[in-house]
């Protein structure tokens, strides 16, 4: 994995190779609607409920990261991310959801859509059955793409001050969220520095698949898509 004698980080390889797919995510009408404030509130409400269910399983990936970590520092970071997600981010999520008329009871009783179920099951499968590098490759597209989207939307004049969607933009464009994404990126690079091309190709496939699921999640939310025959 060298170019003109210069070793390229695996994250840089992913970033360059998957830009076309990432741009599809950034340009999705759901994302653009958050940025210009035109997104139908009902669609965002649907998204908030499904995102809450997603975060529950995303937290489990952090727990698995602590189990698979090879050193105490990495173990502690994953444990910290698990604690922050379960006890702080999800609390903020519940408070934000209340602004859209979503009660805690509704969140707790909600059922995952087919896409939410498929995405989280794939991510957990890759994390449970693979190496730590495979776990990071599975979880990274969510954190990395949300940070990139947040920063891009934050550049739109007035977007971060929107009465309903501004706080979402502020959260994902924040320094704190960026530090989480950067830590995951650096950890992936650390654990892929000596990997063979065959191993890297497998990691790239995992990263590609969860990146695709990110697009499908936006599409699912925009169309408020549940199981056939269900409202």
TrEMBL record:
<comment type="subunit">
    <text>Homotetramer.</text>
</comment>
<dbReference type="GO" id="GO:0005829">
    <property type="term" value="C:cytosol"/>
</dbReference>
<keyword id="KW-0784">Thiamine biosynthesis</keyword>
<feature type="active site" description="Proton donor">
    <location>
        <position position="214"/>
    </location>
</feature>
<dbReference type="Pfam" id="PF03070">
    <property type="entry name" value="TENA_THI-4"/>
</dbReference>
<dbReference type="InterPro" id="IPR050967">
    <property type="entry name" value="Thiamine_Salvage_TenA"/>
</dbReference>
<protein>
    <recommendedName>
        <fullName>Aminopyrimidine aminohydrolase</fullName>
        <ecNumber>3.5.99.2</ecNumber>
    </recommendedName>
</protein>
<comment type="similarity">
    <text>Belongs to the TenA family.</text>
</comment>
<dbReference type="InterPro" id="IPR027574">
    <property type="entry name" value="Thiaminase_II"/>
</dbReference>
<dbReference type="GO" id="GO:0050334">
    <property type="term" value="F:thiaminase activity"/>
</dbReference>
<dbReference type="InterPro" id="IPR026285">
    <property type="entry name" value="TenA_E"/>
</dbReference>
<dbReference type="GO" id="GO:0009229">
    <property type="term" value="P:thiamine diphosphate biosynthetic process"/>
</dbReference>
<dbReference type="InterPro" id="IPR004305">
    <property type="entry name" value="Thiaminase-2/PQQC"/>
</dbReference>
<comment type="pathway">
    <text>Cofactor biosynthesis; thiamine diphosphate biosynthesis.</text>
</comment>
<dbReference type="GO" id="GO:0009228">
    <property type="term" value="P:thiamine biosynthetic process"/>
</dbReference>
<keyword id="KW-0378">Hydrolase</keyword>
<comment type="function">
    <text>Catalyzes an amino-pyrimidine hydrolysis reaction at the C5' of the pyrimidine moiety of thiamine compounds, a reaction that is part of a thiamine salvage pathway. Thus, catalyzes the conversion of 4-amino-5-aminomethyl-2-methylpyrimidine to 4-amino-5-hydroxymethyl-2-methylpyrimidine (HMP).</text>
</comment>
<feature type="domain" description="Thiaminase-2/PQQC">
    <location>
        <begin position="16"/>
        <end position="223"/>
    </location>
</feature>
<dbReference type="InterPro" id="IPR016084">
    <property type="entry name" value="Haem_Oase-like_multi-hlx"/>
</dbReference>
């Amino acid at each position: 994995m060298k170019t003109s004698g210069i070793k390229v980080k695996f994250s840089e390889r992913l970033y360059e190779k998957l830009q076309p797919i990432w741009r599809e995510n950034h340009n999705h009408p759901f994302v653009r609607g958050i940025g210009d404030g035109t997104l139908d509130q009902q669609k965002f409400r649907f998204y908030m409920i499904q995102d809450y269910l997603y975060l529950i399983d995303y937290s489990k990936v952090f727990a698995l990261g602590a189990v698979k970590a090879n050193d105490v520092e990495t173990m502690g970071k994953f444990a910290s991310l698990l604690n922050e997600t379960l006890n702080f981010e999800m609390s903020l999520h519940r408070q934000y959801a209340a602004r859209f008329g979503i009660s805690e009871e509704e969140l707790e009783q909600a059922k995952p859509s087919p896409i939410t179920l498929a995405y989280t099951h794939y991510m957990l499968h890759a994390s449970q059955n693979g190496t730590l590098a495979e776990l990071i490759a599975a979880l990274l597209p969510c954190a990395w793409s949300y940070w990139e989207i947040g920063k891009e939307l934050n550049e739109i004049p007035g977007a971060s001050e929107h009465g309903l969607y501004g706080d979402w933009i502020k959260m994902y464009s924040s320094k704190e969220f960026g530090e989480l994404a950067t830590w995951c990126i650096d950890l992936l690079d650390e654990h892929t520095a000596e990997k063979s091309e065959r191993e890297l190709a497998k990691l790239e496939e995992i990263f590609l698949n969860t990146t695709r699921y990110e697009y499908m999640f936006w599409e699912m939310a925009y169309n408020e898509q549940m199981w056939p025959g269900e409202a």
